[in-house]
Amino acid sequence: MNEISKKTVLISGGAGKMGKLIIDYFSSQDNYEIIGIYDPGYKSDDYPSITTLEDINPDYILEFSPASAINENIQKWSTVTSNLIIGSSGISNESINLLKTLDHNRKVVVVPNFSIGAAYQKLLSIALSKDFENVHIIEKHHKNKQDAPSGTSSDLALSLSDVASSKLDNHDGENNIINGINIYSERGEEFLAEQIVNFKSEYETFSLEHVVNDRSAYLYGISLVFDEIENLSNFTLGLETILAKKISILS
């Protein structure tokens, strides 16, 4: 029997909660081999702790570092030839522009949120914004999340055009305005990841609510990316870009 040729994986941000989930996932996959973890906080005998990129050329680098480290890490990964999958938020426009210029022979996939629910919420929000003139977003995350508003809510707001956004009175969440849209951010131990997009017209309202109850929800999105990666262009932004090609309503 021929031995399976495994793809090698380097996981950046492996000491975080998402990083640990990714480690568990890929350690159970027969087609992939984790060759190291890149994270100052990583301490384990299971996989090598990588501190330098010398002599390392994995097939895939999976980047799940927090917002405080993501842009610096992208600068590092831009100098290697590995395919790059980024699952972090807080990515700057400068970093996005850099990623778009990388060697076209490598795949670069930027997915700030691997939840398919969040991706469908964005696709539906874009459709609804054509018929509802007013919208606001409420996002709720765990207390350790560094960025506010979240990368997911900011990205969603930037994807909507020709809509207004009235301010909510007496709302406890921190208020930011992105692309003219009010985003209210709440942080607390009772949340993992939640987002509500409220649309209003003169005579009716329409709400899209998405709640993640367990981080394992993100694994389907990761699996989807790896199933489709060979069919993707050299640069892909957002899980919804992949899902949009897979769905058809009333066709």
Q: Could you please describe the fold and organization of this structure?
A:
The chain is built from seven helices and eleven strands. It is of the alpha/beta class. It has two domains: 7-110, 3-Layer(aba) Sandwich (Rossmann fold); 116-212, Dihydrodipicolinate Reductase, domain 2, CATH 3.30.360. The strands form two sheets. It has a six-stranded parallel β-sheet, sandwiched between helices. Strand 4, helix 3 (93-100) and strand 5 (108-110) form a beta-alpha-beta unit. The longest helix has 13 residues, at 116-128. The chain starts with 6 loop residues before the first strand and ends in an 8-residue tail after the last helix.
Structural topology:
Layout: E1 7-12, H1 17-27, E2 32-38, E3 60-63, H2 67-77, E4 83-86, H3 93-100, E5 108-110, H4 116-128, E6 134-141, H5 151-159, E7 174-178, E8 181-187, E9 193-200, E10 205-212, H6 218-228, E11 235-237, H7 239-243
Parallel strand pairs: 1-2, 1-3, 3-4, 4-5, 5-11, 6-8
Antiparallel strand pairs: 6-9, 7-8, 9-10
Please identify the oligomeric state. Answer: single chain
Total DSSP E strands: 11
Q: Looking at this structure, what is the CATH superfamily of the largest domain? A: NAD(P)-binding Rossmann-like Domain
- Total of helices: 7
Strand order of the largest sheet: 2-1-3-4-5-11
In the residues, how many domains can be counted? 2
Major beta-sheet overview: 6 strands, parallel
> Briefly, what CATH class of the largest domain?
Alpha Beta
